[in-house]
Structure to design on (666 residues):
């Protein structure tokens, strides 16, 4: 064995259920990336505590390994089963809320979900983004402002929704490179965007895979309440990923992926209820009307909010952690 | 929306970083399987605490999702990358130790590892299980006894090891259905098994996949110390998955998958050092000699040990948990 050099790591041997955690931490402690070291430290602690607290059996461990392999195997660019798993465990909503602390009057974020694509077309105001003739017509008129109430122009507003059957375009095998039910609209000098779409409907998240089977075992339904997704982007502003939900939806208080927030629930009106609107936007008076004022924060405001929130966690840990670049790392790094 | 019925689950809305955990638990609380409900409860708690404590960023979450998908994608029946991930995080060793509490004088278990197969041939005593002519010859003479020292016959002893280059047969593309470096030997009426093999060598765990890349980032080496795997099975006895490690190996105290235990380390002798042994077993006196006495516990002893260990965890939780079928479940289930 002359060809092998004894590695320069803390020695360990004779591992037990009690000392294994410290030993794994010790061998990971050579990691030069302080943030990664911190993440692994916390991950290993929680993973081991989970196994000890539950006394996870080998049979259950084997089933979990198989489940995770299946989740990976079924995942593709258009079917993000691991994102879905994170969604149904409430992790996606939590991470979004952590990374985007609620700030003053700014619009709250919510889960991205697995159906955003990067191939939506830029369209002009008034465009009908859905080709589904069975959908109930909807006119959306929104504004984009900053936290001081000033309109923000040239914000790329990425919108996506299902068809009237509750399916996104990417869930159809013949979708090819023709996006449907999605588009990017740019805000004008008054911060306004408007476009035609269809009234969102509730829909099941994909339930024919391992995550769907898990929900079944948990006796959870797999529905999301009616909503329309929005992603707002402009250099200098914190990217906002959010969605608007229709009030009164049967799944409003039991969203399978925990995305609903009170501030994101809207009441649809009728275009005809407002004098002159149908003519101005060239739609039938029966068309449903969605209005919303999005409020963006700047990148600098977001950076500060994250920094402050991280510092609050560090303070609670009494000197063990510090904040570098907005992220928590061990103080001794 | 007349076709949808409002589900009968606890209502939730307006989720924050603080109340999301209780809300996810509430919606999972309809699960009729008490054990699954308990596992999910603890999993969600740890997962959310991990995200809150580290303030996991969306970028880090995205990188984790991609990592997990990659781990799933590269996994096959002969490349168990999720098992490997569990191994390098110390989880596999921990779960084995939990499921097989150390009992009296019984042989300790250790990690199964990702290279066990189910197609090893049953061979007669004295068979050479390795076809690698470059390997250093080894004669293994072992016994299998119960905790009272009585020999156990008809135990199927599944053995597997790498070749002299540190690769298992399944790591060669042309392996096909011809197992090599693995076999099943059955104990005789005296509890004895003996077979020929080659002296184990240290080897790297597969490091060309996502788990290997993680170890690189952590500045961890990917070597396992020299060892030979054993799985011992007989109806009525607790299946023992273990391995024997060679004393003095350079990686003895830094095993990449945390498998080494003091009681499983052996000193190899020379067959020629014992009068008459070379002639009796028809090998050269220079052949290395591995001897070990395995001690199995019965299924009933294992069941009792698990039950008692689970009860100790339940007692610590002061009435919140109870033990059913050896597994912890909530008391109110």
């Amino acid at each position: 064995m002359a060809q092998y050099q004894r590695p320069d790591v803390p020695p360990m041997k004779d591992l037990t259920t009690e000392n294994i955690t410290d030993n794994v931490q010790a061998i990971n402690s050579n990691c030069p990336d302080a943030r990664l070291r911190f993440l692994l430290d916390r991950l290993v602690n929680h993973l081991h505590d989970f196994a000890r607290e539950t006394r996870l059996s080998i049979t259950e461990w084997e089933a979990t390994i198989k489940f995770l392999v299946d989740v990976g195997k079924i995942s593709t660019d258009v079917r993000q089963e691991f994102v879905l798993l994170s969604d149904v465990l409430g992790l996606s909503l939590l991470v979004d809320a952590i990374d985007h602390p609620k700030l003053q009057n700014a619009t709250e974020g919510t889960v991205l979900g697995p159906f955003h694509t990067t191939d939506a077309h830029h369209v002009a105001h008034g465009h009908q983004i859905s080709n589904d003739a069975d959908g109930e017509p909807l006119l959306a008129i929104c504004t984009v402002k900053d936290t001081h109430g000033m309109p923000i122009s040239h914000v790329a507003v990425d919108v996506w929704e299902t068809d009237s059957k509750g399916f996104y375009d990417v869930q159809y095998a013949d979708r090819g490179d023709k996006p449907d039910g999605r588009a990017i609209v740019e805000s004008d000098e008054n911060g306004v965007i408007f476009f035609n779409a269809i009234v969102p409907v509730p829909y099941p998240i994909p339930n024919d895979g391992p995550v769907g089977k898990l929900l079944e075992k948990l006796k959870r339904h797999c529905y999301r309440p009616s909503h329309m997704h929005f992603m707002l982007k402009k250099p200098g502003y914190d990217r906002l990923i959010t969605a608007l939900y229709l009030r009164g939806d049967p799944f409003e208080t039991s969203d399978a992926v925990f995305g609903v927030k009170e501030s994101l629930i809207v009441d649809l009106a009728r275009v005809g209820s407002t004098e002159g609107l149908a003519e101005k936007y060239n739609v039938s008076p029966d068309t449903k009307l969605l209005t919303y004022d999005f409020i963006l924060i700047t990148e600098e405001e977001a950076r500060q909010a994250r920094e402050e929130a991280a510092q609050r966690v560090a303070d609670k840990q009494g000197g063990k952690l510090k904040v570098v670049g907005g992220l928590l790392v061990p103080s001794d790094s």
Summary: The longest strand of chain A covers residues 137-146. The helical segments of chain A are 20-28, 34-54, 58-74, 81-88, 91-99, 210-217, 277-281, 299-316. Chain A has a mean pLDDT of 93.
